[in-house]
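User: I need a structural model of LIM domain containing protein from Trichuris trichiura for a docking pre-check later this week. Nothing fancy, just the predicted structure tokens so I can convert them on my end. Input:
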Amino acid sequence: MKPDQNCHGCNNPFSGTNKFVVVGCFVFHEGCLKCDYCHKKIDNPGVNAQCLDDQVVCKAHIDNKELGANETCTTCGKEFTPLDKKIITIFGVRFHYRCVRCADCNAPVQENEWQGYKQRALCKQCYEKVKSVPCVKCRTILKEEEQSIVLQVGVICPNCFKCVECLKQLKPDDKFFQLNENVYCNACDMPFRRAKYVFDLTRGGPG
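Assistant: Understood. Predicted structure tokens for LIM domain containing protein:
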């Protein structure tokens, strides 16, 4: 019986006459089993070979602590070894390149596609969520580039940035008066203030 998968060493299929050896989840032609660390053939693999992440090495390297590491990957918890060809560092936190995951949704993130936000690595979708805020009037979610109009109580979208009295649509550089989330144009500002002043007088306010 021959294995269904190709040889992990040479990537060629097995014929009915090929002898094969199994180490962990990997299958090799008998002559293809070599240590990924010292590149020497591993004899008697049942005793002398061991899987280390997605590599196969001589067990002696591990026993002799030649492959020991002083840090572990934040995602998988496994130690870094000299066999790890690529280690990603994000805000001082180290990952195997294949282990970088979004800090919010835990989805895998491809190299150079993550976004940094408050000392966390995020995927593009989660980054857009945390950087987005709702309009103080209509509660529409605004992306970062849509947050140019800022009131004292939050961000307002361009559609809602209009005078509540005359409904004049305002531009970001227009003069305006604000009361909580309500905006008044310059023309409606003074009548509103006078009316408010009279109202305050009747309530025993400013005098």
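Before docking, keep this in mind: The longest strand covers residues 20-23.
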